[in-house]
Amino acid sequence: MSHPAASVQQDQRIALLKVLGPIHVWALGVGIVLVGEFMGWNFSVAKGGAYGSLIACWIIGLLYTCVAMIDSEVTSTVAAAGGQYTQAKHIIGPLMAFNVGLYLVMAYTMLEAADALVVGDLIKAVAADSGYANLDSRPFALVTIAFLAWLNYRGVFVTLTVNFVITAIAFLAIVVLFFGVQPWNPGHILQHRELLTQLPYGWLGVVAALQFGMWYYLGIEGTCQAAEEVRSAGRSIPLGTMSGMITLLIAAALTWYVATGLMPWEYLGQAVTPLYDAARLTGNRGLQTLLFVGTLFSAVASANGCINDASRAWFSMSRDRYMPMWFGAVHPRYRTPYRAIIFLVPIAISFAFTGLLDQVITFSILSGLLGYTFMSINIVRFRRMWPLGSINRGYVHPYHPIPAIVLVCLCAATYFATYLGYGASLLSIMAFYIVASIWFALHRYKYVKRGDQFTMNWPRPKDY
């Protein structure tokens, strides 16, 4: 009878397949994020009004452009599963790597739970329109997560190919809605002159809106999780990530313009499915059906990408002994991190069953924000340890260190914005990560083989 440890080591030797190209990277990044155009972003309207939400959209767009540029350079150079976690263990050290890995897992798992909540609430809203007012939304959330986990279990190529198709349909739904409301004919359908107001809570409201302004773009950094499964990291990661960011900036602008021209900010700021509601207000049944499909597909694509990314981060941590090695197994047939995928399913379902959409979103936002703060430190240290010309980089982002400085400043502003509305949540989430760090330092670190962590064929760091 073989020893379990030997079985795990045999599983580890089975590599992930290199089958993905730029469109799959685009589908992974945009697929995770596009649901933010269909829901969640509008909570920023409740904080700062319609104009405040637009200002937050562009400020946070700058934050994520810096994230995309920085991530593209480091990930195309450290081309391994785990994304920012793998970067942290190579550039900073084990404790930071553990925390970054946990940020990734929690951010994507919470986002997955929020997506499942949206699927359930959307189906419940449509059922209510058809006379079924007491429909329970939770079974739909459960089925969504379970089906997508099964799809991820079966293989990454099919998973992200499906994501590309349904994400493209969801994006086209936003474009069709934009033209459907006849923006060239102001006052006919869109009522911006009557609905738009000045900043209802002043500039402090604009700052508070930064928190949910992140929902326009949260998750685009997930493209890094595909680094070990793309055919050419130096080409696919930068191209897929930056084209994805451009797509999201366009989608965010169209979404804001349509929604604020059809709904007063007081209602828009608390709507669960704002674009679907906007389509209903046009009175066009075709647009309403299309936006139902678009909202449903965007939520499914996002949850699908989140399962992919969270499982890769958990798998990478387990493979390096930051978590139990049992989770670091690769399926012998499908070549996927199947145990990591299965393990995270009940966690996502339990948060989805709470029904607390804004709290789940806040947990995801803060976990992501902690990861972005790390990136600004990471790229500065990376450039100092391995200056340009010392190693082969797949992509070099311009204007360094300006993006890193801008990123850390915008992260600080967004922390303050979160404190204004969700101070207790901010402090409790920070406490969670501090306790997790103590657990790692006192208990788990002894299992980590420090000499095995550095897997890149690079020269010694400068001034080593």
General description of the model:
With 464 residues, this protein is mostly helical. It has one domain (27-452): Amino acid/polyamine transporter I. It is 70% helix and 0% strand. Helix 2 packs parallel to helix 11 (233-260), helix 4 (43-77) packs across helix 17 and helix 10 (202-213) crosses helix 17 (402-444). Residues 1-12 have low confidence and may be disordered.
Key words describing this protein structure:
single chain; mainly alpha; Amino acid/polyamine transporter I; globular; disordered N terminus
Low-pLDDT segments? 1-12
Query: Mean pLDDT score, rounded?
Result: 88
Taken in chain order, the helices and strands follow as HHHHHHHHHHHHHHHHH
Shape, principal axes of CA atoms: globular
Percent helix, as a range, is over 70%
Number of strands: 0
Query: In terms of structural class, how would the helical and strand content be classed?
Result: mainly alpha
Membrane topology: Multi-pass membrane protein
Subcellular location: Cell membrane
Pfam families: AA_permease_2
Protein name: Amino acid permease
